[in-house]
Amino acid sequence: MATYTLYYATNRNHIGADRWHPDSYVTKFSDDGMENLRFGIVTVTADDFQVGKYLSSDMQDCGKGNGEDLGGYLAVCAKTAQIDAYQESINKDIADVAQPQAKLGSQAMFADVQSDMENSSDVLLYIHGFNVSWFDAVGSALALQLMLRNAPTKDPKQNVLVILFTWPSDGMALPWVSYKSDRSEATGSGAAVGRAFLKARDFLADLHDRAKQGGETLCGQDIHLLCHSMGNFLLQSALARTFDHTPGNCLPRIFEHVFLCAPDVDDTALEPNQPLAQVDQIARNVTIYYNRDDKAMVISDYTKGNPERLGGTGAAHPALLHNKVHQVDCTQVVHGLVEHSYYLAGNINADIRASIDGWEQDDPRRKRTRSSTLSNVWAMKS
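Request: output the structure for the sequence above.
Response:
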């Protein structure tokens, strides 16, 4: 047996008498409000031999590693996990910045994450999608971390640390009711993620200030963001909240790379004056991964009355995308019943890891081909 640890942030309400060592988190907002964030570490015990089998599994056209099934296995293991939330001591009626003696969970976790980054570890913030319980969220995030750390494209000198943001996704299999509920909760949770972005912005700004004054050495590592499915809808609200609390007309650049995976948003979402139009401002690079055979996107289109989804067809007008934004068609290498969580599979996960490690979009080692007409449009190949 082996233990696997994962940093997390959540606006879910906890279960158990001790909020700092809860039994789990549930499908409702924190009793302290939908923007209240709890930060912590979850420790999962799993059979390392079984984990190794999933990581080495042959996914045919999609390459090595079955992260989706690994996530399912780790979700079961997460039911007996140890949860340790960073303790806080703050006055909820006063802004954080007005409490110099406040003890903040975010500051404690950022300090621990900074220590990990100083040991050559990039950070990837992961926001899950629709119909995901706490246990599923932990399983998927840990699977993502393990897949990225074992990708064949990895830089052996560079590690990747995943931080899970988990919101009260309904976790029920009621196609219409739970989907509408999750969209409402994603909108509310977007404000909480916006708060997290602002906290990260302030923490990074403070590090830069201390470095300039000679009191701190920057680690030189990068922070990235991966949103899956409805997590991209949540990102829209997060950008709006961040913009409202940012001086000037531009968002702060927090991330090196943003990955929009199977995004359950309109296929025009990145166009001017649309909800994700400013996503390029928070990152140096943005990559969209989509699959034309994604059954979840078809359901979102037709049974939910949504327009064409970015995760099903790619951008409606790719020529209008910012030059930082590239899109990758994964249709030819994705197989399975749902074909929705392919960011956890083989070559696509390896392509994400290659971007984290700084490969150029046109690096010949990538398993993808460029469109003959558009320089920002790609297709995965086996």
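The domain at 115-380 is CATH 3.40.50.1820 (Rossmann fold).
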